[in-house]
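General statements about sequence and structure are easier to judge against a single worked case. When preparing material for the folding task, we compiled for one chain both its residues and its backbone structure tokens. The amino acid sequence and the backbone structure tokens for this protein are reproduced below:
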Amino acid sequence: MATSTIPTILAGETGYFLSISWIDENEIEYTDTIRVKANVSIAEIQALVDASQAGSNASSYRIEFSTSWEGAKSSGNATSAVHESVKDKVRYSMKDLATGAYEQAYMPAPLEAWVDAGNIVDITQATYIAWKAAVDAVKKAVFTPLNVAFVQYSQRNDSISP
């Protein structure tokens, strides 16, 4: 079983991050995240947003400030299994029926027991049930589950053949 190196949450945060989300004229979205100091001010954040926007052809539309608890990066703690890539994911889709907001949560590199040979997610697995309950518990609003699917990474290619 893969293990985590994230320290106990009560031990105190270890990092602060600022993310700016962008959309280009082709409606392709991108989010860039940088590590920032713990006491970054609103004025400093606004100055970064303004300077970033001034230098981009894309439109910035969201900024997030987050706190993290980080452990050591160690691929040795990961398990070599059928779905070992973080780009292989179980996607849990949900919707807030009151507002129409649609959100997804992902489990990267799901356990083999979660996904059968036909790439169907087994929602009866105890670890899946615990994960879904934890996702539901931290959501800001009440979301209605829509579906669960196994998805694999695919890179978009906008090239045109001659």
